[in-house]
Amino acid sequence: MPTAVVLLSGGMDSCVSCAEALHQGYSVAALHVNYGQLTQDRELQAFNDICDHYNIDQRLVVDISHLASIGGSALTDRTIQLRTNQLATEQFGAEGNSSKSEVPNTYVPFRNANILAIATSWAEVIGATAIFIGAVQEDSSGYPDCTREFFESFQTAINTGTKPETTIQILTPVIDFKKHQIVTRGAELGAPLHKSWSCYTNGDVPCGECDSCRLRERGFYVAQVTDESRL
Amino acid sequence: MPTAVVLLSGGMDSCVSCAEALHQGYSVAALHVNYGQLTQDRELQAFNDICDHYNIDQRLVVDISHLASIGGSALTDRTIQLRTNQLATEQFGAEGNSSKSEVPNTYVPFRNANILAIATSWAEVIGATAIFIGAVQEDSSGYPDCTREFFESFQTAINTGTKPETTIQILTPVIDFKKHQIVTRGAELGAPLHKSWSCYTNGDVPCGECDSCRLRERGFYVAQVTDESRL
Fold first, then answer.
1. Alpha-carbon gap, residue B37 to B68, rounded angstroms
2. How does pLDDT run across A100-159, given as a tens digit for each residue?
3. Is A38 exposed, middle or buried (0-12, 13-18, 19+ CB in 10 A)?
4. Out of A117, A147, A150, closest to residue B114 by CB
């Protein structure tokens, strides 16, 4: 049985990517990264809940809170105000100030490269042949490190920067999905979506107002699936 | 004055790269990474000594000791024995068991990608336009993440994975140098080579026996420069 490193943030997209890896017959080694994000504790709980659900023993939790020290993102820096609706206006087609070329201030500079580099180091040591990452190009509109183009170039970096005998493939099973398609696929695979956490704020229950909550709610609505985490 | 992030391990190659960045007119932001290597404390001291020498104020020290937890390298794992002479036999042309295609066991899986990812995140936030890394392709023979090919592919990952307005160039000023050329160039630029640390073991003075010490000694010998750290 081949092994895959699955990047499991605890969010819905990574939850479905994990389900996809298991569905494709991989043994899953789950990687979670704390990067000093405001919702760190809640996301770690979601990571462990999903791992428990799937009986995943091989877990690695890594702290890269230097990304928070470096700053530059509303997700890690309390002095930068979360601009709500910046994603929502693009996604839902409403009028807004955000232009398509503007990168949202929730972008954590080059975060996915940092995470993929760790995943590759781990994959090379444990002999995993795939890395699953639940990046979504369209729904995260404007994050440069969520594009297919970025993942293709990072794939080349992996091919050139690891041992000749190492073969690791980046897989992005939901990259072209809209949020409702992720919900639908998750429901099909029996993914524990109710254990995932999407909200950009910390709390016992999701705020229901941030961009991420709104995208999630909309996704469940369009997919006509009940979000059991809201029951 | 443009800013460059300089990766400053405290070794000779990065010391000369730092001198090169200053020589080219950059304001230097120095980045040091602890990755759980056995010589961590001594290298950090060398980093600070070199920064002090150049009056570099902007310093960032990052801990990525998860690379040590991940393991797979003699540099981070005490249970893997440092194979001495594995570089030396290749470099010095003597007979040995190591074949050219074999990656030395001092290779830390995908380390340079991890380090470059951090450097890129920092560079993007502070507006640096260059990253200097003192990688050497030939002298580190067999490290896949020290090749020109790897750096070119990582450059593409930076171009695609950062904001459209971000421009960061990876510069590898010593990549094609042999060790003695690094010594010569360092001496020309007045780099504080005597403050750098090369030894793979920990101690007050270099062991003089490990691959890294032998390469350094040979470099100074061929360049006909005195290594003041050995006086």
1. 7
2. 457 888 788 999 999 999 999 999 999 999 999 999 987 656 889 999 999 999 999 999
3. middle
4. A117
Rounded Cα distance between B28 and A121, Å, is 29
Q: Looking at chain B, which residue has its C-alpha nearest residue A156?
A: B153
What is the residue whose two structure tokens read 């470059």?
B116
**The complex's ipTM?**
0.89
Nearest chain B CA: its distance from A20 CA (Å) = 25
Cβ-based contacts of B131 with chain A (< 8 Å): none
Residue B44 forms contact with A (CB below 8 Å): no
Q: Which residues of B86-120 are buried (b: 16+ CB within 10 A; e: fewer)?
A: bbbebbeeeeeebeeebbbbbbbbbbbbbbbbbbb
User: Cα separation of A159 and B135, whole Å?
Assistant: 18
Cα A174 from chain centroid (whole Å): 10
B39 neighbors B202 (Cβ within 8 angstroms): yes
Chain A contact for B159, CB < 8 A?
Answer: yes
Cβ–Cβ contact B79 with A under 8 A: no
Q: What are the pLDDT digits (tens) for A12-35? A: 999 999 999 999 999 999 999 998
* Three-state DSSP state, A207: coil
A218 contacts A94 by C-beta, under 8 angstroms:
no
Q: What angle do CA B152, B153, B159 make, to 5 degrees?
A: 90
Indicate the residue of B109, B124, B149 with minimum beta-carbon distance to A121: B109
Are the Cβ atoms of A154 and B158 closer than 8 angstroms? no
Nearest to A125 by CA among B149, B147, B68: B68
Residue B231 CB partners (closer than 8 Å, separation 6+):
none
